[in-house]
Amino acid sequence: MAWNEPGNNGGRDKDPWGNDNRGGREQGPPDLDEVFSKLSRKFGGVFGNKKGPSTGGSAAGLGVVAVLAAAVWGVSGFYTIGEAERGVVLRFGQYHDTVMPGLNWKATFIDQVTPVNVQAIRSLSSSGLMLTKDENVVQVEMDVQYRVSDPEKYLYSVTNADSSLRQATDSALRAVIGDSTMDQALTTGRQEIRTYTQEAIDAIIKNYDMGLLVVDVNFQSARPPEEVKDAFDDVIASREDEVRYLREAEAYRNDILPKATGRAERVRNDAEGYSERVLNGAKGEVAQFEKLLPEYLAAEQVTRDRLYLETMERVYGNTSKVMVDSSSSGNLLYLPLDKLINPEQKASQPKNSTSGNYGIELETVKPTPVTTTPRPDTGRQGRY
Within this chain, do residues 104 and 153 fall inside the same structural domain, yes or no? Predict the structure, then answer.
């Protein structure tokens, strides 16, 4: 007789996995036929079958249960992958596929999906006391920015890709600092250290195939030990002053050189103009004397007198003084037309009370005798 037959043990039925205590003895494992029969009766009661268990009812109940279970299993397999993510699918614990963003389906209890963000820029920092090539100790800080390039390799090539990248960054940074001097790490070699560190990190990532891509490496700071920090600060300040002075000198040079070049060009042009003017004037005078030479040779005395008179005319025409011969007698009336024509000039001397005209300064000048000297070669008289 089955353990859960009606009326057994005083009508106290146990659940399929319970124990019926019969006189202190434990019952053996439950009968599977009875378990399925009981489940069929329960589902049959839900769907309107209340006449007790039967073979047809049990089959129908099992079918309904199977359909419901299949529907629940199918619906539970739908999932969504974000736009910036990729889904890594494992089937029975082994890599199967990488799915793209959108609505996807997986076999529940068979497939396992892990979404990985491949667009987010991640960051990690590395810092510590490091020994330089010249046996000095510096405090170095560096920040590395990276992202996931291959989700499968990121998850399963190494145990922890982020931790492995942190260790690779620390190792690469220590190697680069160890090949640099303290002066380079603090001042001039910061850009080179940044470049070499990124190259070393890329090489390590390539060897370990981590599925990561380094976007940027920032060399944040490098500080000397506190005991010598003040001295190094003075060195850095002096170098910054040197760079500033050089830039100021270059700016001053760029401002002065064009002006000096312009002035030099102007002076050179003025000199060339003056040279051409003097040369042309000299050539004109030479040409004038060459034209005058035949006349002088034809009539020397007449030519000298004419030159003298023309010269005196030019000289007297440029002066305001009136010169008369002392041999002449009588009063000379002079009307200063130049002062009357030009109102800006005023007479500086008082009026003559005797003649009523403006007073003028008179000088007596004796005519300069013209002398000639004979030429030694031809016997002709030379020019004055």
Answer: no
The answer to whether residues 50 and 82 belong to one domain is no
- Could you read off the pLDDT of 236-254 as tens digits, one per residue? 788 788 889 999 999 999 9
Long-range contacts formed by 315-324: CB under 8 A, 24+ apart: 321/361, 321/363, 322/360, 322/361, 322/362, 322/363, 323/362, 323/363, 323/364, 323/365, 324/362, 324/363, 324/364, 324/365
**Per residue in 185-242, pLDDT tens?**
877 788 888 899 999 999 998 888 889 999 999 888 777 777 777 777 787 788 788 8
Q: Are 222 and 139 in contact (CB under 8 A)?
A: yes
Contact, 103 vs 77, CB < 8 A? no
Report the Cα 320 to chain-centroid distance in Å.
75
Q: Which domain holds residue 356?
A: 323-364
Q: Is 199 helix (H, G, I), strand (E, B) or coil?
A: helix
* Complete DSSP assignment for 123-188: EEEEEEEEE-TTS-EEEEEEEEEEEES-HHHHHHTSS-HHHHHHHHHHHHHHHHHHTS-HHIIIII
Q: List Cβ neighbours of 103 (8 Å cut-off, separation of 6 or more).
A: 78, 79, 80
pTM for the model stands at 0.46
